[in-house]
Amino acid sequence: MNILIASDIFGETASHLELCERFSKYHSVTSISPYQQKPPLFASESDAYHYFLKEGGMGNYLSRFNYLECANEIEVVLGFSAGGAAIWAIQEILTALSQGVAFYPGQIRHYLETNIICPWQIVFAKFEHHFDQEDVLNMLVKNKNLSLYRAPFEHGFINPQSENFDVIGRDNALNCFLNFKATDKTAKLEAEFAKYYEKFGNPIVSD
Asked: Which of 36, 85, 147, 156 has CB atoms 3.0–4.6 Å from 162's, for a disulfide?
């Protein structure tokens, strides 16, 4: 399976690269981040966000996909925060895409008119401080091919560098992927993800 993993605004951190390496045991993995060069170490999430904006924000992140040489080979995408929103926004250029997964992609609110080309599993944070998440959920739930969840954790819970990091939340979120073998079908990934995320409460699902 060819998987594209899109980082959050912290970039390709040690934990991000470790995750890519774990996936690469069973899959062909491509990593992408908002930055062409390695960013500095950030003292806080606020520092990371200001750097992200200085480097061009979402516009710059989206432009990075123009240089993705394997775009027509990617079958599964996995994105975190801005990375989740970015792969959602550009999904039409990934001609082989059959499954999308995004965690707390808050910026997706700016790309609600995106044409959905495959099934998506989108996990939202427990709460977002900067926008009305309920409005976004109510807009997305009208679409087909979307399974929407609300995790009982704050935005950033998968990233150890985030102030909202939760090790249990991270393990819960990623375990269903790490057992997904290269010979498995994306339909199995979708089914396993849905089953696994029942542990996070009642998902909002639209089919």
From this structure: 156
Average pLDDT of span 176-189: 62
List, in order, residues 6 or more apart from 194 with CB less than 8 Å away. Answer: 121, 147, 203, 205
Q: How confident is the model at residue 207 (pLDDT cuts 50, 70, 90)?
A: very low
Contact 93, 116 (CB under 8 A): no
How big is the chain, counted in residues?
Answer: 207
Distance between CA atoms of residues 180 and 146, nearest Å: 20
Q: How confident is the model at residue 18 (pLDDT cuts 50, 70, 90)?
A: very high
Q: Do 133 and 159 meet the contact criterion of CB atoms below 8 Å apart?
A: no
Helices and strands of the chain, counted as H and E runs: 7, 7
Cα–Cα distance measured from residue 181 to residue 167, given in angstroms and rounded to the nearest whole number = 23
Kindly write down the DSSP assignment for every residue of 134-146, as one continuous string. Answer: HHHHHHHTTSSSE
